[in-house]
From TrEMBL:
One Pfam family in the UniProt entry: Hexapep_2
GO terms of molecular function: O-acyltransferase activity
Entry-linked InterPro entries: Hexapep (IPR001451), Hexapeptide_acetyltransf (IPR051159), Trimer_LpxA-like_sf (IPR011004)
Assigned keywords, A-Z: Transferase
Protein name as annotated: Serine acetyltransferase
Family: Belongs to the transferase hexapeptide repeat family.
Domain of life: Bacteria
Biased composition (Pro residues): 209-223
Parts forming coiled coils: none
Region (Disordered) location: 191-223
GO CC annotation terms, alphabetical: cytosol
Amino acid sequence: MHRAWSFARTAGAITPRSPARYRFRRLGDGACLSFPQGAIFGEAWIEIGEHTLVGERVSISAGMGPGVDLGPDSLVRIGARCSIGRGSHIVGHHSIDIGDDVFTGPYVYITDQNHVYDDPDTPIGRQWPRNNPVAIGAGSWIGTGAIILPGTRIGRQSVVAGGAVVRGEFPDHCVIAGVPARVVRRYSPGSGWHPPTLDTPLTGHLDVPTPPTLNPGPLTPTP
């Protein structure tokens, strides 16, 4: 059984030497999508760079489903020498750019599309979603279970802590953590890594409605 499974993993991997490579917009030399793969479709709009390793059961998709014409440009671009942790999902509809040398832990979720809830009478799943491009800078690390939401731009050589829910724009050389995520450390030449100063933007933005102000009315004394 072990020999058979080892053979299946080797034969089932997608590499530049396998016929499945022709479905992709680009699959660089030395790249490998480990077997078993997750849900993969829209390959004609997916680019994967040289020597990038995609772990087992990773789902990478472009568009809402197979067989849809998504236009002339690629939608999901993963750079060279990246490592995508097992069980992760990269779901692109508009534009996802992952730079070179980006590593992720397992079960990371990256998407450029989100549901809306504008109409309170229509089920949220039936309302037309909104797209917002995502970019992750070269050399960054995305921790286990992190969620990268639409509209996120992460700078170069940055760290996203495990379990963070990230949306907004973040600078180079920072540590991002929390729900919602904020900058908890920055790197400055000469002083190294340190907590952000008061004039440093700590967070991106989340479309969270402001809760209504409660008006309890006049207070009546208790008899």
